[in-house]
Automatic annotation (TrEMBL):
The lineage of its organism: Bacteria, Pseudomonadati, Pseudomonadota, Betaproteobacteria, Neisseriales. This is PhoH-like ATPase. Residues 13-148 form the PIN domain. GO terms for molecular function: ATP binding. Pfam families: PhoH, PIN_4.
Length: 469
């Protein structure tokens, strides 16, 4: 028995958690599988210091404290031997949680004052490493400087990776796939093709079909270019449908036409009532907001599928904050909605025959159907038959993204727009953004569509700046 215990100790690691990991993800204490966790007293002290307020960080600090309290309630005598995480994590974690039950005095270089919380935690890691020399003791922290200091002292330190959907965002689903003649040859067994309602359809069978996703864009270049979307998937069989050509003026949406293949596919998704969730990724100037607003206006004012457009976004300033803003919820959101106003100006110019009076009337009509809402008041709401646009979605955490998307009631379409290379929220990276999370989780659902817009259509200046600066 003792031999087995020693073997386990050698194999499993001891992770010392920094406060910011738990304030970032309260469930982090259940994410370390068979390894043990150690919480220094300073970590608990910092959790206590951050529990007040209505911010996401304060909520996470309170939730973490609840998890720890549930774990140790009634087990005060066993704390020195550690508390098992198995039951509380429903089998996800089989390690033990250790709390600091005695004072630890560790000798750190004199340049590091022990009064600072970070240095006290480093002292605990140093002490544990000395007490258990045969075991890997690793500090887990979201704070880069803390990790640098730990490594400078010869201590092992890691970032918290469990919140990352993907290690490398280059692997993120783009929503499209290029095919060639060999694809048709490999998967053309029992190939069927037919015309229906002005669209072309194909039914394929073959080994590569299992790698396709619902509503994925398939395109072929060459002498006979072709673009289609995957409509149905059933085992090794797929049904694909040709796209409606929104690049032609006769199919213009509120005067807007698609300027490239990806924009055409985006409009196909935005105008399809069977697709409840659409995510559009792309650099600045790829047309995300313009296409979405044009599609929303046509379906709200002309075909009346939706009763109104609701637009929301995270209010994270790029520079210094401009302070408190006067007025109603809508007026407070106005400075953040410059993108909305700019795009409405473009959409208003599309009706050349209307004249100034006609355009002014159209503008008032449009503004009456577009509501700007703040994220702060979203909990508990339900949107019926609305066209909900979530702008700058890369600044949302996965939890906030879930809160927003679950507001959708019957007949509501949700569109997420963002650029994961422009994240302004602290602690969020391209891999852990709510936008990355939602694209990855929704790609297999038949009522969702995603496309990464590639080409900027704003201006040659904007395109050159995006590439070279």
């Amino acid at each position: 028995m003792a031999a087995r215990k020693t073997k386990k100790t050698q194999e499993t690691k001891l992770f010392v958690l920094d406060t910011n990991v738990m304030m970032h993800d309260p469930t982090s204490i259940f994410r370390f599988e068979e390894h043990d966790l150690f919480l220094p007293m300073m970590t608990l002290e910092e959790l206590d210091g951050n529990k007040k307020g209505m911010t996401e960080v304060a909520r996470n600090a309170r939730q973490t404290s609840r998890f720890i309290e549930e774990l140790i309630a009634g087990r005060e005598e066993d704390l020195h031997a550690g508390v098992s995480l198995e039951d509380a994590s429903k089998g996800q974690a089989s390690g033990r949680l250790f709390l600091q039950t005695e004072a630890i005095t560790s000798v750190l270089p004199s340049q590091l004052p022990m009064g600072k919380a970070d240095n006290q935690i480093l002292g605990v890691v140093h002490h544990l490493q000395q007490m258990q020399p045969k075991r890997q003791v690793i500090l887990v922290s979201k704070d880069i400087n803390m990790r640098i200091k730990a490594r400078a002292l010869g201590l092992a330190a890691e970032d918290y990776f469990n919140d990352k959907v993907l290690e490398d965002t280059d692997l993120l689903y783009t929503g499209m796939r290029e095919i060639d003649q060999t694809f048709w040859e490999k998967n053309g067994k029992d190939l069927e093709s037919w015309q229906e309602g002005g669209r072309s359809y194909w039914r394929l069978k073959g080994p590569e079909v299992i790698d396709l996703y619902p509503n994925q864009l398939l395109f072929q270049q060459g002498e006979r270019p072709m673009a289609a979307r995957v409509v149905e998937l059933e085992g090794k069989a797929a049904k694909i449908e040709s796209l409606k050509d929104y690049s032609h003026q006769k199919n213009a949406i509120w005067g807007v036409t698609a300027r490239n293949r990806e924009q055409n596919f985006a409009l196909n998704m935005l105008m399809n009532p069977d697709v409840d969730f659409v995510s559009l990724l792309g650099q600045a100037g790829t047309g995300k907001t313009l296409l979405t607003l044009a599609a929303g206006l046509v379906q709200t004012l002309e075909s009346k599928i939706y009763s109104e457009i609701i637009m929301t976004r995270v209010t994270v300033p790029v520079g210094e904050d401009i302070g408190f803003l006067p007025g109603t919820e809508e007026e407070k959101m106005q400075p953040w909605m410059g993108a909305l106003e700019d795009n409405l100006d473009v959409l208003n110019q599309t009706d050349a025959e209307a004249g100034d009076w006609g355009r002014a009337a159209t503008r008032d009509l449009i503004r009456s159907r577009i509501k700007v809402k703040s994220l702060n008041f979203m909990r508990g709401r339900t949107f019926l038959n609305k066209f909900l646009i979530i702008d700058e979605a890369q600044n949302l955490t996965p939890k906030q993204m879930k809160t927003l998307i679950t507001r959708a009631g019957p007949g509501t379409k949700v569109v997420c727009l963002g650029n994961i290379s422009q994240i302004d929220t602290p602690y969020l990276t391209e891999g852990s953004s709510g936008l990355t999370y939602v694209v990855d989780r929704f790609k297999s659902w038949s009522h969702s569509g995603h496309i990464t817009l590639q080409r900027g259509e704003r201006s040659r200046l904007a395109d050159y700046a995006a590439e070279t600066l």
